[in-house]
Specification:
Pfam family, one: Na_H_Exchanger
Number of helices: 6
Low-confidence stretches: 108-114
Protein name: NhaP-type Na+/H+ or K+/H+ antiporter
Subcellular location: Cell membrane
GO molecular function, one term: antiporter activity
Order of helices and strands: HHHHHH
Membrane topology: Multi-pass membrane protein
Shape: elongated
Radius of gyration: 22 Å
Number of strands: 0
Mean pLDDT: 75
Structural class: mainly alpha
Strand content: under 5%
Length: about 110
């Protein structure tokens, strides 16, 4: 069980070394990052393998996936609020906001001159 809980965060941490992402951003990726579909495929492979415990293994995989979906979907707002701090807005966000404001200004100016 510890390997299941620790392997993903450790792999994420290693893959983001030198990326410039904060620990908080890395933690969010480790928690919500892409996963799950491979488990379905592996579970189906085991189910079709003909081994004696195939049904039990597949059921364990299915329960784990369902619990993961429930756990992650029940924490998404909590994690999103964790990032709701104006002092730590990424630099790219300010640029995007200024571009959107300029585009809105042009759209508005275009509507007034019509």
């Amino acid at each position: 069980m510890p390997a299941l809980v620790a392997a993903r965060p450790i792999a994420i941490w290693i893959s983001f070394l030198g990326s410039g992402l904060s620990v908080r951003e890395q933690a969010a990726v480790a928690w919500f990052g892409p996963k799950g579909f491979a488990s379905v495929v592996y579970g189906l492979i085991v189910l079709g393998s003909g081994i004696a415990a195939a049904d039990e293994v597949f059921q364990l995989v299915a329960v784990t996936i369902v619990l993961s979906i429930l756990l992650h979907s029940s924490t998404d707002i909590v994690v999103a609020r964790w990032f709701d701090d104006e002092r730590e807005v990424p630099a790219w966000y300010g640029v995007a906001g200024r571009v959107r404001a300029r585009l809105r200004g042009r759209d508005t100016a275009g509507d007034e001159s019509s």
